Structure formats: C-alpha cells, structure tokens
Amino acid sequence: MSCGIPFIAAEKGEIEYLSKVSNGRVIAENSIESFYKIIIDLLKNKKMINEMGEKGRDFAEKYCDMEKIAMILLHNIGHVISNE
C-alpha cells in the first residue's frame, strides 16, 4: 500500500478487513484462477490500478505511520488511565 500500487491477496483474516477499510485493494478467492482473472482485469484497466494505488497509499499514510500509531496508542492509554 505504501508504494501506491494495488495488491492481490486471498480473502482470509486481517487482510480481508484491511481491504474493506482502505478501499484500495482487490481480494481474490484462494485459487489460481481467481488470481489470474483479477490480474488480467487490472492489466486491462490502468485507471483502476491508479485509483487503487492512490487509495492504498492514502490509507497507509493516514493509518500506518509509526509516529501516528504511537500517538494514538498514547492517547488511548491516557484515556483508559483517566477513566480508572
């Protein structure tokens, strides 16, 4: 995501959730045929590749920066402590 290009992953676990919240990825069934179809579809649609890459990059910049994650964590810890 941080590279600004879409990626293809099997629809299991945390990656499925991230694909939905970032709106920048394609999820394939865990089969060779499904991955093949998505790759071909992406190669035929450069606009979709660019849009997905931009959305993934935006998501990574907003939510995956270590400093931002640390600040959110500190905020949440402070909130928990102040409510005790």
Characterization of this structure:
- It is a single chain.
- The chain has four helices and two strands, in the order E-H-E-H-H-H.
- With 84 residues, the chain is mainly alpha-helical.
- The protein has one domain (8-82).
- The chain starts with 7 loop residues before the first strand and ends with a helix.
Total DSSP helices: 4
Strand content: 5-15%
On the 0-100 scale, what is the average pLDDT? 84
Helix content, binned percent = 55-70%
Structural class: mainly alpha
Give the tally of β-strands: 2
The N- to C-terminal Cα distance equals 38 Å
Unreliable stretches (pLDDT < 50, length at least 5) are: none
Radius of gyration (Å): 17 Å
Number of domains: 1
Task: Spell out the helices and strands N to C.
Answer: EHEHHH
Q: Biggest sheet: strands, sense, closure? A: 2 strands, parallel
Numbering strands along the chain, what is their spatial order in the largest sheet? Answer: 1-2
Q: Overall 3D geometry? A: elongated
Summed up, what is this model?
The chain is 68% helix and 7% strand. It has 4 helices and 2 strands.
Layout of strands and helices, then pairs:
Elements: E1 8-10, H1 14-22, E2 26-28, H2 32-44, H3 46-63, H4 66-82
Parallel strand pairs: 1-2
What are the main properties of this structure?
4 helices, 84 residues, 2 strands, 7% strand, mainly alpha
